[in-house]
Write a structure and sequence with these properties.
65% of the residues lie in helices and 0% in strands. It is mainly alpha-helical. The N and C termini lie far apart (42 Å).
Length: 112
């Protein structure tokens, strides 16, 4: 599979995770099986233009979202792949106070 296909698959997964959706939920929204949704995200199957449009609608973005950053950045480092999950977990903390404490800790660890 080409780099662009892997990029699109990665962007699909990132967006799904940021929305807190399961692969099953996305599959139901776009009218495919869970297995097919998994293959799309894993890069095992290419996504047709029509299906990409349906996925974009299901995830609340335009089709161009999946191509953003394609020509401007290299393949992500492993830590970059964790960022959508980290963002989701941060937003799911039970209080604003905890979010602020974690943000302060991150700033302190990052240094000046």
């Amino acid at each position: 599979m080409q780099d662009v296909d892997h990029h699109v698959a990665r962007r699909m997964r990132e967006r799904r995770i940021m929305l807190g959706l399961t692969q099953q939920q996305v599959a139901e929204r776009i009218g495919v099986t869970y297995q097919q949704a998994y293959k799309y995200e894993a890069g095992g199957n290419r996504v047709s233009a029509g299906r990409l449009f349906a996925i974009a609608q299901a995830l609340g973005v335009g089709p161009a979202h999946f191509f953003e950053g394609l020509a401007t950045r290299p393949a992500p480092e492993p830590r970059e792949r964790r960022m959508p999950e980290l963002a989701r977990d941060f937003l799911n903390l039970p209080s604003r106070g905890l979010q602020e404490a974690i943000a302060d800790l991150a700033r302190a660890l990052a240094g000046p």
